[in-house]
Each structure stands twice: as C-alpha cells, then as structure tokens.
Design goal:
InterPro entries: FAD-dep_OxRdtase (IPR006076), FAD/NAD-bd_sf (IPR036188). Keywords: Oxidoreductase. One of its GO terms (molecular function) is oxidoreductase activity. Pfam families: DAO. By secondary structure, this protein is α+β, with helices and mostly antiparallel strands. It has a domain of 286 residues: FAD/NAD(P)-binding domain. The protein has 12 helices and 19 strands. The strands form 3 sheets. Strands 1, 2, 9, 10, 11, 12, 18 and 19 form an 8-stranded mixed beta sheet that branches. Strands 6-7-5-14-15-16-13-17 form an 8-stranded mixed beta sheet, sandwiched between helices. A 3-stranded antiparallel beta sheet has the order 3-8-4. A hairpin with a 2-residue loop joins strand 18 and strand 19. Helix 1 packs parallel to helix 11 and helix 5 crosses helix 11. The protein is globular, with a radius of gyration of 21 Å.
C-alpha cells in the first residue's frame, strides 16, 4: 500500500526512544505480553511498577497499530449505561462494572499526570450528537442515569450543540465532561518509554508463533527463533489477533476505521468549529467521529471498506460527512489520510479469557480503546500480581468463536452499505 494511504496526523514525541528490541536474558519471567499497544503497555507498566519482570513482544513497531492510529478520543463508559449493566450482571457485579466504566478516562489522564507523559491533550469533554428524535431520547435517558450517579454531564438542546460544535444537522446531544482528547501516537510511545524506564523489556518486530506449557512454565517462541520462559502470558493483540491462540480471532469482528485530516484551519474558519476543544461522535448507524488536532486541523473518521485502500477515493465517505457538517470547509485541502482496525464482539463488551492457567487474552475495544484498554491494563496487572479474579472488572469467559465467522465479514460489509444508505435518508 502506498505510504500516502497510511499518513496519520499524529506525531511521535521528541522524547520517543528508538527501541533496541531488548529481550530478557535467561531465567523465567513473571509475564510475557504479546502486543505493544495501549492494552499491552498499560499492563506492562503497572505490572513492572508492582515489581514483576515483564517482556513485551510486538510483531511490528510500537505505535504502528490501532493504538497509534485511532482518533484519540478518551471516552469513559461502555456501550451500555448503568441500568443495563445492573440488569444483566446483577447488583454487585453490575455496580463494579459501572464504577469501572465511569473511571476509564481517568486512567488515561491520571497516568499522563503521574508519569509526566509528553502527550498533547485537552480534557473538556465528549459530545454524543443526536441527529434524530429517537437518538435525542436515548441521550436524555443516558443523561438521567449518569447524572443520578454524580457524573459531570449535560443534556444539550439544538442551540447548545450548535454553539459547541458549529456543525449542521443536530437536534441536540449529550456532553460528558469526564472525557477528552489526546494525541494517541504520543500516548502510546510515551507509555512505552516509561514502561521501559520501569524495567520492562520491549522488543519490536518479534512475532510470537507458538505457545507451549511445560512443568507449569510457558515457553514463548518467536518467528526469529527466540524462546522465552514465563509464568504468565498476556495476549493483547485485539483487532490484530491471529491464530496464536486457537479460536480467539474468530470471537471478534475486525473493522477498518478510516480517518482524514484537513490542512490547518484558517483562524476565521476555526473560530466557530469546536471552540471548546471537545470530541464528537454522532448517533448515525455508521457513526462518524471528529475533533480538532493539536496543530489546528479538523480530524474526522468513520467505518470504511473492509479491503485495504487503493486510492484517495476510499476516504470519500469521510470527506462527504465533513462537508455535510461543515460546509465552510469545502475549500480546505485534505492533507492526511490513514486507517486502522478496531475489534467488535457480538455483545459489544470486552472479553477476558484464561483458557489455561497463566494464559490470558483480552479482545474487544468496541471503538473506546484508549480509555478502556488503559484502565483494563491496570486491572490486568493487579490480577498478575494477586491471582485474584476480583481484580478484573469483567468475568473471565470461555472462548466462543462466532458461528460462520468466515461469512461474518461479508455480512458486516453489506450491513455497513445498507446502514449508510439509511443514514443518507435521515439527513
């Protein structure tokens, strides 16, 4: 794929190290973490801070996957609201999940503060924009539930959302001030830097190809012939999961998320577009999400084709959405185009698995991976230290491949096309 079709707007911080692909020498590690994204690095950092010996192995380069390519929206919560979680998980476990979900954004901004990460960020909230009466009723219900728990949230009417976004076509929405935005590539690289400083060994371009267990110790073999020994293994590959753990890749539906960034906006145009620096996601079936970048560009993303892009036309749906919302941007050049993967599960919840003692896997960020995986990483580290499953916010579940998984991708692609057409009728 030409480099022009993988050109994110995000920047590596000047403090980013050039990893020497360090491998632990001899002995038995406390944990090997497969995948150097936000989930893997968060787990590694917190586990190392607790005194564990940790090795991170990544098949590519740190920041190359979804953790460095996402929209940088730090959104608390899950796809479901408190009342649904209480109904489906029971009062005790439901309350645990609600408390966890409420604090996922805190996990990001707390580590930026506590570890002094060089990460551009703004914490002025996230807006869920409603384009239909039905979506507005949903927003009102969500507002009621979180407000009753003391969350700093606000229901927006048409005038309110117009003033905060400057966008066309919304009836109202919901503002969650717990949320914010970051540069995701800086965040991922900085997590790697401080993890390495805490003693974590990080090796790029080391693909793990085999896991075996002998006498209670895991042997982790890489494509290059390296073998490491460890008490535990954590698979943190999410949407990039392969066949390393049989059946795991068939439990998720990986989707491509395409993004564009304009040239830096002229001051007179920028003044009325997201003046408070919030992130926005809308209520369409095939939602779009957008924000301003630290250097003053407009960044917008949405679900794209399942095949790899072959020309700028593959981002045309993003450009149409941008101009629909902000007609004044029609003359502004699109300077950056890129894409990454997200992982969905059928129930829209993260799945935690431990098919054998000491072999852990986490999949399913549902498009909220920055906050969710940062917070899950800390809990996973606590589990590695204590062995107490109560440290985990989600129950450990068996691996259950999606029936007819090979056909699921075709069905998802057809659904995206159908939903996009329905969305067009609701303009």
């Amino acid at each position: 794929m030409p480099a022009a079709f993988s050109d994110p707007v995000w920047q590596k911080p000047q403090t980013a190290p050039a990893f020497r692909s360090e491998l632990s020498a001899g002995g038995t590690l406390d944990a090997v973490i497969v995948g150097g994204g936000i989930m893997g690095l968060s787990t590694a950092l917190h586990a190392a801070r607790a005194g564990l010996s940790i090795q991170v192995l990544d098949a590519g380069a740190i920041g190359q996957g979804a953790s460095g390519l996402n929209g940088g929206q730090v959104i608390p919560g899950l796809k479901y609201d408190p009342e649904w979680l209480l109904e489906h998980f029971g009062k005790e476990h439901g309350e645990t999940l609600v408390e966890f979900a409420a604090a996922t954004a805190d996990a990001v901004f707390d580590v930026i503060r506590d570890e002094k990460l060089a990460v551009p960020f703004t914490r002025n909230g996230w807006i869920q924009a409603a384009h239909t009466d039905t979506a507005l009723k949903t927003a009102s219900n969500r507002d009621r539930q979180w407000r009753s728990r003391g969350a700093d949230v606000e229901l927006l009417d048409g005038a309110g959302i117009a003033a905060m976004t400057g966008a066309k076509g919304y009836l109202g929405g919901w503002l969650d001030r717990r949320a914010g935005i970051i540069d995701p590539l800086s965040y991922t690289m900085e997590l790697a830097r401080v993890a390495a400083g805490a003693g974590v060994k990080i090796a790029e371009r080391h693909r793990v190809v085999k896991l075996t267990k002998q006498a209670g110790v895991w042997r982790v073999s890489t494509q290059g012939g390296t073998e490491l020994r460890s008490k535990s293994v954590v698979l943190a590959t999410n949407a990039y999961t392969d066949g390393l753990l049989p059946g795991l890749a068939q439990t998720i539906v990986p989707l491509h998320s395409f993004q564009i960034a304009t040239a830096p906006l002229p001051a007179e145009v920028a003044a009325s577009i997201l003046p408070g620096g919030q992130a926005v996601s809308d209520s369409r079936r095939i939602l779009i999400y957008y924000r301003r970048s630290p250097d003053g560009r407009m960044v917008l993303g949405g679900r794209g084709r399942m095949a790899l892009p072959s020309s700028p036309a593959d981002w045309a749906h993003c450009e149409r959405a941008l101009i629909r919302l902000y007609p004044a941007l029609a003359g502004i050049a699109i300077e950056k185009r890129w894409f990454g993967r997200v992982a969905l599960t059928p129930d829209h919840l993260p799945h935690l698995h431990e098919p054998e003692k000491g072999l852990l896997a986490v999949v399913g960020c549902q498009g909220r991976g920055v906050g969710l995986m940062s917070a899950l990483g800390k809990r996973m580290a606590n589990y590695l230290v204590s062995g107490d499953a109560r440290q985990l916010p989600f129950p450990l579940s068996p691996i259950k491949p999606i029936p007819f998984h090979a056909f699921r991708q075709v069905g998802v692609a057809a659904a995206i096309t159908w939903y996009r057409m329905l969305d067009a009728f609701e303009r």
